[in-house]
Amino acid sequence: MNSTTTGTTAPAIEIHDLHKSFGAVQALDGLDLTVTHGQVAGFLGPNGAGKSTAIRVLLGLLRKDSGQVRLLGGDPWSDAVALHRRLAYVPGDVSLWPNLSGGESIDYLARLRGKVDTKRKDELLERFGLDPTKKTRTYSKGNRQKVALVSAFMSDVDLLVLDEPTSGLDPLMEAVFMEYVREAKDRGTSVLLSSHILSEVEKVCDTVTIIRQGRAVESGTLEELRHLTRSSVTTVVAGDPAALSALPGVHDVATVGTDEGTRVTFDVDNAQIGGVLTALSTLDVRSFTAAPPSLEELFLRHYGEDVSDAAAGSDAGSDDGTHVRPDDRPGKHTRAGSKAGAR
Amino acid sequence: MTATLERTAPAASSAAGRGGSTLTGTGSLVRFILRRDRVRLAVWTGSLVLFYAYFTAALGIMGETEGALQARGALMETPSGIVMGGPGYGVENYTVGAAMANEGTVWVVLALALMSILHVVRHTRAEEESSRSELVRAAPVGRHAPAVAAVATLVLVNAVIAVVSALAMTGVGGAEEMPLVDSLGMTVGSGLSAMVFGAIALVFCQLVEHGRGATGRSVAVFGLAFAIEVAGNLREVPGGSTLSWFSPIAWAQQTRAFVDLRWWPMALSVVAIVVLLVAASMLASRRDFGGGMIATRAGRPDARESLRGPLALAWLQQRTALLWSCLGLGLMWLASGTLIPEIGDMIGDLVVENPAMQAFFGGDTSQLEAAFLGAIMLYGALCAAAYAIVMGLRPKAEETTARAEVVLSAPVSRGRWLGAQLLVAGAGTVVLLAVGVYALWAGAASVGVTEPGLGTYTEVLVSYVPAVLIYLGLTAALFAWIPRATAAGWALLAYTFVIGMFGGLIEDLPEAARWISPFHWVPEPFVADFDAGSFAGLTAVAAGLLVLAFVGFRRRDLQST
């Protein structure tokens, strides 16, 4: 549907070296992000990393300080209205007009964008299990989010911008949400999905950009990112596994004696996995499992470094906050321990 | 006792001992409120003390001129004097103190009542609505603690204001002229009267689910009390009629401070406050957290065909407030209009009975009638300006709640969105003003008063429209350029009010100080002719501010929490 309106080669979103600050706070510090046409792109980062700021710049709600931003081939600030005809947005914390019902809010938002397809609306309401007659002030966070999701999925657009859209949904509804994202993708719609729920991104995204402190720290397809990281290996061997720890690329070796032999668990850099297999073949392997790295691990590696920094940096005993939100401690970028934070 | 027992016993006993109380945590909440509102409450206190002190000083200067206060006293027996002042105790020997009590009390009560209503709603229903209070109530804090803490801090602030203001009045006016006991009679009486409205607000906070609704209803009750007070005082001068006693404002006026002080009318306020607080507490015990007594009805499953675009939504959001404002203001002004013949009689009697008055005003009493209409008109215009500010702040509420974000990420331009809000707000303001003016005319016409005619009323209406829209323009421009300072619209309204009410009192007021008030540029209603020049000037200012608002809002970042 959109191949006629957008050049098939033009990226849906193109951000280069984007800066945005609020007073002394540097929210975006040279962000790069590209979403190619028809792709589902994950946008990952912890709270306060700058995801919502980047999205608000894309929507023309905030003005960039510097850098290049193109949205569907246009300028998000000056072409805002024209571009918004071709996109739908779901904020993370949806706030609605208290005196309207859910159904009225959905219709209102959909009509701003064009015609309302009542058949599609009824289907979405049923799938998301939303009662449209309730006044929005009686809705829970999840139900308010459903209102925004229904009105977004109702519209036939080129781009969906979803800012932590499932933060209030239960797993069942999350599955329904995933289904509609896939359906949108099949229709050729580009999707930017910001999240800190990694399994969600893993399930549906073609590419992932990880953002931290206002800049992209990793980006690529899931395959490429996995390549950068380690696999978890669990194996039971009859021989002596001591030599394994000495191999290049092997980390965090732990051994436990069992009836069958020694159970060894360790992580290995994907590039070095061949050497490990060679070494293992001499050890009389009884069982072997290797798990690909989950995004969870990718994620923890990026933020985990800061956790260990924080732990190392706080002499007077670290509080829990430093572990949950490492970004709250500015100026701790140096690599200190490599182990503590990873798991 | 073993170490283990020592450790567990206090926990168990505290759970049992404190768990039963619905007031647990009140002390910490009181400290929290005082900490959170320290600037806000200090500004209220400072402004009120300043008001008391300044007008004592101004009246003192006026009193130095022979006969000036006496002439002012005579004016206070006229209808416009009663409408703007009080029941007229002490007019026959009008001292500085008598003038303060007679003319100042109602405005002090107005300011304190607004403070009380806003304070109570802010710390009870508004907190619940924002679900901040959910965090607090999940801590070991009793069900009634937030309300009790709000009332306790209100009593504290009112007490501080009363004592400091009394000291200031006596200090400025001199203990001879203004004894401390009378000063206290006026300030304490006013504070108690105002707290009745705070208690009314607390009752509304239990009944309705929204802070805004509770505030609006409480302010409406104040409007009603004001109308009763004025109507009651007009019927009998001096002293007011029985009717005025139905208004809590009268309970402050009837202390007769500086004339013949009596304390017992304050007891009426105290009794009313206690009864209202008990009622509020009973209602609070029966309702759910976050809920009201009036159940929420189910809404439409889909939107009306007409709900298309920001303009339709702005209308949907503002129409209820507009309807009630029109109804309230219309009825009050209709009633005022029907009073005009009585006003004429009253003025006739005054002039016949009092040769000094005749000498003062001359034989022409029509000016006194016009002055009465002018005073009513000033109130109406101030109400319309307040409505303009309230509605001019709607875009800010939409923005801070992130509802604007949802709409502006749809194909809706900044200009269209803001324009929709301001168009409905501006049109509503004009409609409200027109309803007031024509209700006044209709009231007068219904009792056979044909002069001034409909044409004159229309002229007055037209001349006030741009002045009132300046408040909308200012609020919108501030929203666009300095969103933190949108309250400055209220400051201009308060300033206009003070200049309009008491501007004549301050003799050495520089002319430029009057210029700031938009109403200064409106020709005196029902007296001066329509002035195209001032109309064009005011229109240009209002239009300029609105243009500024659009320019500013298009270029700034949207703010979200």
From TrEMBL, chain A:
Topological relation to the membrane, as annotated: Peripheral membrane protein
Q: Which InterPro entries match?
A: AAA+_ATPase, ABC_transporter-like_ATP-bd, ABC_transporter-like_CS, ABC_transporter_ATP-binding, DrrA1/2-like_C, P-loop_NTPase
Q: Where is the composition biased (Basic residues)?
A: 332-343
Q: Which residues form the ABC transporter domain?
A: 13-238
Where located? Answer: Cell membrane
A Pfam cross-reference name: ABC_tran
Span list, region Disordered: 309-343
Which residue windows does the record flag with biased composition (Basic and acidic residues)?
320-331
Q: What is this protein called?
A: ABC-2 type transport system ATP-binding protein
TrEMBL record, chain B:
User: Which organism was this protein described from?
Assistant: Isoptericola halotolerans
Q: Which domain of life is it from?
A: Bacteria
Protein name (record): ABC-2 type transport system permease protein
- Residue stretches spanning the membrane: 41-62, 104-124, 145-168, 188-208, 215-234, 263-284, 321-340, 370-393, 422-441, 461-481, 488-506, 532-553
Kindly state which keywords UniProt assigns to this record, in alphabetical order: Membrane, Transmembrane, Transmembrane helix
